[in-house]
Amino acid sequence: MMTSLEKKLKNPVWFSLKETHNKFIIEYDGVHFYHPDVCTFGAFTDVTKTAKALNEYSKLSKNFFLVSEHETPLIDSNTVFLEKKIDGCQMVLENLVAIEITENIVPLTEQHIDEIYELIWLVMPGYYQKKSFDMGSFFGIFKDQKLVSISGQRMQSDDFIEVSAVVTHPDYKRRGFAKQLVAHTTKEILKQHKLPVLHTDKGNTAIPLYEKLGYKISRDMNWWLYCSK
Fold first, then answer.
1. Where do the H-state alpha helices sit in 58-206?
2. Residue 125 confidence (pLDDT)
3. What is the pTM of this model?
4. Three-class HEC string of 15-62
5. What integer pLDDT is reported at residue 1 of this predicted model?
6. Is 97 left (phi over 0), alpha (psi -120 to 50) or beta?
7. Is the dihedral of CA 195, 98, 216, 84 positive or negative?
8. What is the pLDDT of residue 3?
9. Residues 117, 130 contacting (CB under 8 angstroms)
10. What is the predicted pLDDT for the residue at 128?
11. How many CB atoms lie within 10 A of CB 77?
């Protein structure tokens, strides 16, 4: 039986790991995680199974996320604790709004892995691993012989690809780099005949930028950040 796109979008980590990213999966009885070297996200369909799975995954990674639309995972408080819940939302592309690309956007390769990692950790520390590069394509803008702005792809299924890692060095903001990179990354996804999606936290100042490019908020998507004791 075919799984509908709508169902996949309600549980994007789960279906990424079932499909395109299956090579990265670690399974614990109905709870799926990425290998922690690649990404520390997990997902579930049965909330009664999360506590045991989190206990196991906590042996591999000190910090990790479960991603859910509206369900609250169960935990074993002897082993893990909730550090914070990120109230997020999912945005999907409705119609791409054409914008002028004036910058030279470069496909990033393995030789850029350290630069990507350093820029993301400067702007958004805490979630990106060097092997996150293996999740999808990354694109960048260089100024003054250095990488100053990037956009990449993260979760992927047979039907959608997530735009992610949209970061610009603080010294190079307000030049339209992120807007052009998101537009470019979105076009690359459309070439694969997949739906571009992205996730962000509610109230993020970048939401109007995404809306100007043709994305719209479609649902809640929450990130539960756990730490092992």
1. 113-123, 177-191
2. 79
3. 0.94
4. HHHHCCCHHHEEEECCEEEECCCCCCEEEECCHHHHHHHHHHHCCCCC
5. 56
6. beta
7. positive
8. 77
9. yes
10. 85
11. 10
Domain 91-220 has CATH 3.40.190.10: no
Q: Exposed, middle or buried: residue 209 (CB in 10 Å: 0-12, 13-18, 19+)?
A: middle
* Paired strand residues for 199: 90
Residue 186, helix vs strand vs coil: helix
* 146-156, strands of its sheet edge to edge: 106-107, 138-143, 146-156, 160-168, 195-201, 88-93, 215-220
Q: Report yes or no: 159 and 8 within 8 Å, Cβ to Cβ.
A: yes
Provide Rg for the chain, Cα atoms.
Answer: 17
Residues of the chain with pLDDT under 50: none
Amino acid in the structure at residue 158: D
Distance of alpha carbon 99 from the chain centroid? 24
Specify the pLDDT at position 126. 75
Phi, psi of 166 (to 5 degrees): -85, 100
Token pair listed for 190: 């459309």
Q: Which two tokens stand for residue 153?
A: 């792809």
- Beta carbons within 10 angstroms of residue 4's beta carbon: 10
Do 207 and 217 touch, CB atoms closer than 8 A? Answer: yes
For 10, the token pair is 């309600």
How many residues appear in the chain?
A: 229
Q: Which pLDDT belongs to residue 124?
A: 85
Residues 53, 198 contacting (CB under 8 angstroms): no
Start-end ranges of CATH 3.40.630.30 in the chain? 91-220
